[in-house]
Amino acid sequence: MVNLTKTFAAPRGIADLLRRRPSADGVTPVDGVDLAVEKGEVFGVLGPNGAGKTTLIKILCTLILPTAGRAKVNGYDVERESGRVRESIGLVTTDERSFYWRLTGRQNLEFFASLHDFYSDDAREMVDDLLGVVDLKDAADVRFLNYSAGMKQRMAIARGLLNDPTVLFMDEPTRSLDPGAAQGLRDFIKGEIVRKRGKTIFVSTHNLEEAEELCDRVAIFDDGKIKVVGRPVDLKAALGEGSTLSDVFVHHTGKRFEERGGAGATAPGFRHDRRGSPHRGGGLGRRRGGV
Ligand SMILES: Nc1ncnc2c1ncn2[C@@H]1O[C@H](COP(=O)(O)OP(=O)(O)OP(=O)(O)O)[C@@H](O)[C@H]1O
Ligand SMILES: [Mg+2]
Fold first, then answer.
1. Is ligand 1 within 6 A of the CB of residue 289?
2. Is the pLDDT confidence value at 186 over 50?
């Protein structure tokens, strides 16, 4: 992507419209981003709450249009060839409300498979296969509402894989999971999705440990801008022996993060603002004016 930028206009009231005043300054959560991700790599965008991670992923998944700049996914332009982009990608978000809670896991996946235009026999077979991949075969006929957060997240991954995408986008895949479940999910992503299935993964996270463990390369992202890109090991080495990824973040953004502890805490991460509840989504379309 080259000079990718997204500005949301400031909300305007009736009075502004009547006066035909140009809108006041908006927010620019993606601000001149240049990035190239290699085929087959796990690429992480590491940034605190509000950095613009979800907005960046939404643009790349063709859910919103950029204000300026260009981006290609799998060689297809996100604006001019959005249909092609969508055919070749999968999206995993933390918005569990996009599933049907009263349907079983299997029924949910069969429904979403039908949206991809699969014949029902093919869909059944594929759903069965994917339930095995995400280790939910035993719970396949249990209603979604009875799943644990980890199971819901694996369902989201299964859904993201339905069209056998080349690139899988994941927006904070472990956000609502406890440390043990988050670790399990990371192991699963690495083993099953990356090593066995060879997918290219574009993942956002505010979790340093996750970025370090999961990603071949990370982009430190703050205020809509890429501060630095590299392999975690190289980024740390550049700062000197004994440096951590946290030091790298502080060095490039001037911001600190706090260790979180206690029940239900996530792994070391940035201060959460309004996202503490494990039941809140925070995925696509949640905000005012969202898609
Ligand atoms: N549809 C929208 N309209 C106006 N402002 C928006 C919209 N979507 C996002 N924003 C603003 O853009 C900024 C970046 O939001 P974004 O959701 O991309 O950040 P994020 O890095 O994903 O944060 P988080 O870690 O909290 O998920 C925030 O200030 C947010 O309020
Ligand atoms: Mg987000």
1. yes
2. yes
User: SS3 of 169, please?
Assistant: strand
Helices and strands per DSSP (H, E), number in the chain: 10, 11
Query: According to the 3-state scheme, what is the secondary structure of 37-87?
Result: CCCCCEEEEECCCCCCHHHHHHHHCCCCCCCEEECEECCEECCCCHHHHHH
pLDDT beyond 50 at 289:
no
Is the pLDDT at 272 greater than 70? The verdict is no
* Residue in this structure with the two tokens 């022996």, named with its chain if needed: 241
Q: Which residue has the higher pLDDT, 122 or 253?
A: 253
262 within a domain of the structure (yes/no): no
Look at residue 177 and tell me if it is in a domain: yes
Query: Quick check: is 283 in a domain?
Result: no
Query: Taking a C-beta distance cutoff of 8 angstroms, is the pair 249, 221 a contact?
Result: no
Please give the distance, rounded to the nearest whole angstrom, from the Cα atom of residue 108 to the centre of ligand 1: 28
Q: Which CATH number is 153's domain given?
A: 3.40.50.300
Q: Is residue 287 part of a domain?
A: no
Measure the CA dihedral 278/53/234/231, to 10°: 90
pLDDT at 29 (0 to 100): 92
Ligand 1 neighbourhood includes 55 CB (under 6 angstroms): yes
> Mean pLDDT throughout 114-134?
86
Instruction: Name the domain count of the chain.
Output: 1
C-alpha 197 to ligand 2 mean position (Å)? 26
Residue 224 near ligand 1, beta carbon < 6 Å: no
Displacement of CA 36 from its chain's centroid (Å): 17
Residue 260 has pLDDT above 50, yes or no: no
d(CA 107, CA 105) in angstroms, rounded, equals: 6
Indicate if the pLDDT at residue 221 is higher than 60.
yes
User: pTM for the full model?
Assistant: 0.84
> Domain range holding 119?
2-253
Strand partners, 5: 31, 68
Rounded distance between C-alpha atoms, residue 108 and residue 77, angstroms: 30
